[in-house]
Write a structure and sequence with these properties.
19% helix; two-stranded antiparallel sheet; 29% strand; alpha+beta; 160 residues; 5-stranded antiparallel beta sheet
Length: 160
């Protein structure tokens, strides 16, 4: 396992150049983060309870599985400009559910696609893999392969 380091990624969007930084506490090796970048995916640090993993977003521009009804922008901050509060979007628009990718303490890798509260919902999944390569293949399949899981999430959320 490699030591965490400061990671920056830029993503082009039709209206803005996106840049984000993963904190030094991330333990996902750069080579796996590069594989996510190569797929056109965008990520940011996941909450600490996900063992220094990343939340993964699929920008609309990346293509693949998604539904217009998902089109969310859920990371914003308020800024004061010229005495007025304005909202700034911190991530590109996405048309897909968000996943979390992290490594467990037993060195297995997790792809976490849970949206329901209070237990697993009918479209939720928590996939544990022996290698990061298998986990990234699962992420790739979710966003760009068989659309069944994405469609199930859209149905459960009333967006299909």
């Amino acid at each position: 396992m490699s030591e965490g380091n400061q990671l920056t990624q830029s993503c082009s969007s039709s209206d803005k150049e996106w840049e984000h930084v993963c904190p030094e506490s991330t333990i996902i090796p750069e080579k796996y983060l590069n594989q996510l970048r190569d797929l056109g995916l965008w990520f940011t640090a996941a909450p600490h309870c996900f063992n220094h993993g990343v939340c993964i977003y699929k920008p609309i521009e990346a293509g693949g599985n998604g539904f217009a009804a998902f089109a969310v922008t859920d990371t914003v901050r308020l800024l004061e400009e010229n005495g007025e509060l304005v909202t700034e979007r911190l991530n590109p628009k996405s048309d897909a559910a968000v996943l979390v990718f992290h490594q467990n303490l037993d060195e297995t890798w997790v792809v976490y696609g849970v949206d329901c509260v209070g237990g697993m919902g009918p479209a939720d999944f928590y996939n544990v893999w022996d290698s990061a390569e298998e986990a990234i293949a699962d992420i790739k399949d979710f966003y760009f392969g068989d659309p069944a899981r994405m469609k199930a999430k859209a149905r459960v959320q009333g967006r299909a």
